[in-house]
Amino acid sequence: MVGADIAEDGAEETRKAVEAAGGRFVFHRADIADLAAQEALLDAAWGAFGGLECLVNNAGVQVAVRADMLETTPESWDRLLGINTRATFFLSQRTARRMIAEGAPRRGHRSLVFISSVNAVAASTNRAEYCVSKAGVSMIARLFALRLAEHGINTYDIRPGVIRTDMTAAVAEQYTRQIAQGAVAPIRRWGEPEDIGRAIATLAAGAMPFSTGHAFPVDGGLLVPRM
Asked: Would 49 be classed as within a structural domain?
């Protein structure tokens, strides 16, 4: 496994978990929004393992301040779309080129996994740029599904709901109250990073080989229509 982030926080914890499970972990520090850094990251992955079976597009940022969309700034728009959408598209493009190149290894199930959000389809007017960026990620997943199917590469769009991460820390008290009241989702608990990890592991292992380009909500039922 190759992990990449703009900072090394948490890398050692991940390494220990991977090695405890019998795997090998290589960390590469990279700003995914930097296209040159993307190429260096893929060079590191190919150098360490000779190829790649699954790319998980997990890099992303939330709005710095939740505010009325009538107050959205060009700077915030460009930041969100640049990291969440632009970087995701071009890293996937660069990875796909390598995966379908002549002589590229074909070791088991191959896929691109995209982490979008329930906000790809559920609008929040206090973070418009985030919603647009994640809707873009979902479309990218569909586009690559069509382009790569002939090469035996599947794509999956995982849509997290309310997950306990740094992204939700600023509004954790509000969400905790809403979750307890059943106002967020039928399953009345926080989603945990492990919930997303299980979904990724299941799809990357090839458990859904006849699905591609589709969305898999991991949201406690948040997107289920209710009356």
From this structure: no
CATH label of the domain that carries residue 164: 3.40.50.720
Sole residue written with tokens 């199930």:
109
DSSP state letter for 11: H
Predicted local confidence at residue 54, as pLDDT: 97
**pLDDT tens for each residue of 143-195:** 999 999 999 999 999 999 999 998 898 899 999 999 999 999 999 999 999 99
The model's pTM is: 0.94
148 C-beta neighbours (distance < 10 Å), count: 21
Please state, in angstroms and rounded to a whole number, the distance separating the CA atoms of residues 97 and 91: 10
H-state helical runs in the chain:
11-20, 35-49, 74-80, 87-100, 128-148, 172-180, 193-204
Measure the CA–CA gap between 142 and 140, rounded to whole angstroms: 5
CA separation (Å) from 214 to 12, 147, 179, 207?
33, 14, 27, 14
Cα dist from 2 to 37, 47, 49, 114, 157, whole Å: 14, 11, 9, 16, 20
**32 located within any domain:** no
- Domain membership flag for residue 21: no
Strand, helix or coil for residue 24: coil
Given strand 54-57, what is the order of strands in its sheet? Answer: 54-57, 110-115, 153-160, 214-218
Which residues are paired to 28 by β-bridges?
A: 4
